[in-house]
Structure formats: structure tokens, C-alpha cells
Design a protein that fits this description.
Keywords: Coiled coil, DNA-binding, Transcription, Transcription regulation. Pfam families: MerR_1 (PF13411). This is DNA-binding transcriptional MerR regulator. It comes from Anoxybacteroides tepidamans. InterPro entries: DNA-bd_dom_put_sf, MerR-type_HTH_dom, MerR_fam. The chain is of the alpha/beta class. The protein folds into three domains: about 70 residues, Multidrug-efflux Transporter Regulator, Chain: A, Domain 2 (Orthogonal Bundle); about 70 residues; about 120 residues, Rossmann fold (3-Layer(aba) Sandwich). Helix content is about 60%, strand content about 10%. The chain contains twelve helices and seven strands. The strands form two sheets. A four-stranded parallel beta sheet has the order 5-4-6-7, with helices on both faces. Strands 1-3-2 form a three-stranded antiparallel beta sheet. Strand 4, helix 9 and strand 5 form a beta-alpha-beta unit. The model has no long low-confidence stretch (mean pLDDT about 85).
């Protein structure tokens, strides 16, 4: 209940965020993203949840987004998350039953309702996140989760070879970085690139550094993308990137994954962030 109780006046929120009170008022009027409650004397009082939302917006602006883009991004994520609560029941039922055919049918139905990009960039990442939540909540076992992730990995792998490549597009090489145990986010990102018409060579994991250099020499990609989901591995991944960069300085390198959020080569975790960083 305390998260929904107004308790911070505008001066306190201004100090927390480093944003002038006048700017906060302007955001409220122009973008209507929050509606602070009013005290008996008519002063704004912000809830914990509203302060957290404002912190997210400020963080997005520091990443280079405009206020309008940041608000739209967060509203879209919130809408998708709420909608998923109602719609993921059939996904969960299929996973609990180890019913690969039912799960494939559910996915095919969703592809008939939404654009491929919407399913790949919004619904599938939410589904992967929900698998972890369902396991922690006792709705699934690790066997159920791995069953679903294996099917999703297979589905995305097939999609990488399905969509056409724009003849003039650059080649991107996707390689799972050292010590990484979760390739799914990189696979999702690679399918996003393919949907944009890019030629994507997805190599996966456990590739020796010398073999990475050999592949780059053969393919001559414009981009190399890798992943780090564990912050404790970012130092090792950074060393790997430096090694690759020293030998092939003409290749642009990008990082995804929660463990890389503070790395200078991090390109984001949403479609909007990827489009902005990569200019596509």
C-alpha cells in the first residue's frame, strides 16, 4: 500500500532526481504519465511508484532518448506486461504439460494476431522472463523451463533462415561471449536484425578466440555482437572484446545483456533502443 501513497513533495522529488520542479510540472502536463495526488493544501505528493517511474525516465534520457521517446518506451513496456498477464495462461499450460505441439500452435496463433516484430521483440522476451518467474513461484520445474527455452531457441533459429536479406545490407556476426550461459537474448536480437533485412551469421557459444578471428577474416562483417548477462563476467567479456578489437579494428562491436548495461558498447535491451543505436 505504501507504494501507492503520496508522500514526497515536488521539492523532495526534484532533489532526488536532479530535475527542476518546473520541469516536473511540465512533464506532468505535456506527457500525462503520472498524476500526483494533492495534499489538503493543494500541493503535489508523489508516491514511491511514481518516483520510480520518474527515475526510469531520467535514466532513459541519460542514455540518449528524448523525454517523449522515454515515456513511450515505458508505456509500451507496461502495456505489454499487463496484456501478457492475461494472455500467457495458454503458454503456461502448454509448458506444464510438456506439450510442444500446443506451444507451437499458440505461437502460430500469436503470429497471426501480431506482427512478427511484435512477437519477437516484445512477447518472446516477456515469455522468457516469465519462465524464470514461474519457476521461482513453484508453477514450473527447471525441466519445464528448459523444455520451453529449448523450443523457443529452435523456433528463433529457424526464423534466422526464413526472412529475406536486403542485398545492400551489411553482415553482422553474433557470437556468445566467454563464460556466458544464456544465449537466448542474443538469438532474439539476431532475429530482430534479420527482420530489418540484415545478413546475420549466428555462431553461438564456445568459440575459440582464434576461430572468431578466422570467421571475421572470412566473412568480413561490419558488426560483431555479443552478450553478457552476468555482471560478474563483464571484465572477462571486456578483455575478449579488446582482444578482438585489436586484431580487427574495422569491425564495430556491440554488447547486449543485463551484465553489460554500464559498458560503453552496450546497445540496449529493447527494439526502440536498438533502432536508435544502430540507426535502423
Amino acid at each position: 500500500m505504501t507504494a501507492h501513497k503520496g508522500k514526497y513533495n515536488i521539492k523532495a522529488v526534484s532533489n532526488m532526481l536532479g530535475i527542476p520542479p518546473g520541469t516536473l510540472r511540465m512533464w506532468e502536463r505535456r506527457y500525462q504519465m503520472i498524476a500526483p495526488v494533492r495534499s489538503e493544501s493543494g500541493h503535489r505528493l508523489y508516491t514511491d511508484a511514481q518516483v520510480e517511474l520518474l527515475k526510469k525516465i531520467v535514466a532513459k534520457t541519460k542514455e540518449g532518448l528524448t523525454i517523449r521517446q522515454a515515456v513511450a518506451l515505458l508505456e509500451e513496456a507496461e502495456s505489454s506486461y499487463a496484456e501478457a498477464d492475461d494472455r500467457f495462461a495458454e503458454w503456461l499450460q502448454a509448458v506444464v504439460s510438456f506439450d510442444d505441439r500446443q506451444l507451437q500452435q499458440v505461437w502460430d496463433h500469436w503470429f497471426s494476431l501480431y506482427s512478427v516484430e511484435k512477437v519477437v521483440c516484445d512477447w518472446f522476451p516477456l515469455f522468457a522472463s516469465r519462465l524464470n518467474q514461474w519457476e521461482r513461484g513453484g508453477k514450473l520445474t527447471s525441466a519445464h523451463r528448459q523444455f520451453a527455452r529449448s523450443l523457443l531457441t529452435y523456433k528463433l533459429g529457424m526464423m534466422l533462415t526464413t526472412f529475406p536479406v536486403v542485398s545492400s545490407s551489411s553482415t553482422a556476426l553474433s557470437i556468445v561471449g566467454p563464460d556466458e550461459t544464456d544465449e537466448l537474448p542474443l538469438l532474439l536480437f539476431s532475429v530482430f536484425l534479420r527482420l530489418k533485412g540484415c545478413r546475420v551469421i549466428y555462431i553461438g557459444e564456445h568459440v575459440a578466440e582464434t576461430d572468431v578471428l578466422a570467421a571475421i577474416g572470412q566473412l568480413r562483417p561490419a558488426f560483431l555482437f555479443t552478450i553478457c548477462t552476468d555482471p560478474s563476467s563483464i571484465e572477462r567479456v571486456s578483455e575478449w572484446i579488446l582482444f578482438i578489437g585489436r586484431h580487427v579494428p574495422d569491425v564495430s562491436i556491440g554488447l547486449i545483456g543485463e551484465g553489460a548495461e554500464h559498458h560503453p558498447l552496450y546497445i540496449g535491451k529493447t527494439k526502440m533502443e536498438w533502432e536508435k543505436k544502430l540507426h535502423i
